[in-house]
């Protein structure tokens, strides 16, 4: 009966969240938003359903009038297969270019993220306060807003939320971790990387955290870490093999991004301006030489320049990366940006960040319990700021599940404090 009650309660959480998600979708005049990236993913999904494989056969650009147009293909972009396959599933059921139905798929993933936030809240704060991360997840306007776009954001946020939930389970089971937990954790890391490859560099950090959770028991830590890594490799291996056969080179997930990496680590790049098309670059002669090369060679050259800068200027690299974190990544959505994108409720972003920061400070008093959130938050913000030059809003989105849990910690501690203050100890009265 207890298990059945849990199922019914989870279903209730699901349908409440679904109702809120649908209300948000209906609050917009447009049924969906789509950018050149969205059309790119859509093109891959259509090619897959037409039997051509996970390939793109067109490029898209957005003009000054805001209209996205198809242009002659100048290169084939390889992207992680998970999101195009999800689009293919929707198109297979409802027809090509069913963008409105894609948004409802995003709504389902958003609902699942809220339920996972509740489950994680149970592990961290107990059942009494698990509703707080559930409510904060549903109330964060940027989750819902970017879910209106035909983009990977909602899918990636879901995989990160699931990843954090599994880390919370591992932390609870640390003395006797279950094999099932390790296998699922490795699989989720692999799937998340096949949406976006930003967890690929997380393994050294994860290994050190597992070793610390095992209180220095090296053999157990190596065993757990090995199982996770092997499972991640098994999940990603088919994509590696496919790319090797088709392109005759190793492509971990995608075949682009080196230019952004080169720009992000360029000494001339301005660290408080994110629009990279207007950013200055290296010597025009160097850039001109690179752009005459084949696209695959351009990627290698840009990557080499970025790595060379980091190795030759390590102190300046750290200074610039921290400057980008401060000036770009952790900045709340501004009124100009929010109004330009016609976001609803964007003003709440700054309050989520403030509450999250308070929660981070409080977490240091229970470091063992919340360490997995801290290392992920530090890792993700640093890696994104290291790689490129971006504003917070969209590229900060995947770290917000952790910030929601930190914000929840701040709210929980506040409520507990109010509870202690409001308690009245009755005085014992003597006989008259």
UniProtKB/TrEMBL annotation:
Organism: Desulfosporosinus orientis (strain ATCC 19365 / DSM 765 / NCIMB 8382 / VKM B-1628 / Singapore I) (Desulfotomaculum orientis)
Keywords on record: Cell membrane, Glycosyltransferase, Membrane, Transferase, Transmembrane, Transmembrane helix
UniProt keyword Membrane, yes or no: yes
Domain Glycosyltransferase RgtA/B/C/D-like: from-to ranges: 80-240
GO molecular function, one term: pentosyltransferase activity
Ranges in a coiled coil: none
Its membrane topology: Multi-pass membrane protein
InterPro entries (UniProt xref): LipidA_mod_glycosyltrf_83, RgtA/B/C-like
Entry's Gene Ontology BP terms: lipopolysaccharide biosynthetic process
Transmembrane regions listed in the UniProt entry: 6-25, 77-94, 100-118, 155-171, 183-214, 220-241, 371-390, 397-418
Name the record gives this protein: Glycosyltransferase RgtA/B/C/D-like domain-containing protein
PANTHER family, A to Z: MANNOSYLTRANSFERASE YKCB-RELATED, MEMBRANE PROTEIN
Subcellular location: Cell membrane
Cellular component GO terms held in the UniProt record: plasma membrane
């Amino acid at each position: 009966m207890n298990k059945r009650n849990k199922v019914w309660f989870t279903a209730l959480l699901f349908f409440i969240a679904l109702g809120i998600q649908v209300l948000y979708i209906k609050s917009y005049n447009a049924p969906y938003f789509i950018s050149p990236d969205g059309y790119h993913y859509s093109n891959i999904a259509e090619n897959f359903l037409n039997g051509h494989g996970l390939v793109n056969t067109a490029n898209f650009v957005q003009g000054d009038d805001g209209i996205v147009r198809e242009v002659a293909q100048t290169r084939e972009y390889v992207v992680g297969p998970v999101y195009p396959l999800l689009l293919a599933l929707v198109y297979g059921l409802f027809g090509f270019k069913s963008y409105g139905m894609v948004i409802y798929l995003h709504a389902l993933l958003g609902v699942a993220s809220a339920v996972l936030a509740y489950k994680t809240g149970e592990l961290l704060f107990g059942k009494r306060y698990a509703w707080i991360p559930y409510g904060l997840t549903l109330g964060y306007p940027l989750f819902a807003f970017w879910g209106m776009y035909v983009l990977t954001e909602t899918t990636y946020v879901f995989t990160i939320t699931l990843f954090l939930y599994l880390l919370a389970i591992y932390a609870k089971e640390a003395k006797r971790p279950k094999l099932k937990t390790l296998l699922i954790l490795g699989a989720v890391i692999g799937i998340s990387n096949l949406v976006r490859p930003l967890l690929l560099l997380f393994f050294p950090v994860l290994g050190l955290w597992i070793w610390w959770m095992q209180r220095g028991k090296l053999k157990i830590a190596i065993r757990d870490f090995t199982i996770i890594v092997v499972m991640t490799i098994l999940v990603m291996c088919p994509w590696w093999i496919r790319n090797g056969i088709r392109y005759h080179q190793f492509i971990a997930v995608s075949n682009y991004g080196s230019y952004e990496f080169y720009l992000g680590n360029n000494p001339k790049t301005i660290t408080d301006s994110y629009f990279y098309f207007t950013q200055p670059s290296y010597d025009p002669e160097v850039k001109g030489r690179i752009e005459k090369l084949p696209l695959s060679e351009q990627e290698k050259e840009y990557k080499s320049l970025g790595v060379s800068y980091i190795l030759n200027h390590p102190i300046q690299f750290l200074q610039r990366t921290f400057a980008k974190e401060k000036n770009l990544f952790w900045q709340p959505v501004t009124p100009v940006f929010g109004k330009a994108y016609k976001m609803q409720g964007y003003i709440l972003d700054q309050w989520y960040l403030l509450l999250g920061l308070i929660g981070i400070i409080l977490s240091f008093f229970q470091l063992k319990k919340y360490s997995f959130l801290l290392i992920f938050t530090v890792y993700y913000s640093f890696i994104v700021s290291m790689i490129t030059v971006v504003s917070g809003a969209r590229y900060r989105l995947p770290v917000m599940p952790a910030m929601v849990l930190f914000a929840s910690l701040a709210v929980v501690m506040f409520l507990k404090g109010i509870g202690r203050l409001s308690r009245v100890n009755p005085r014992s009265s003597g006989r008259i």
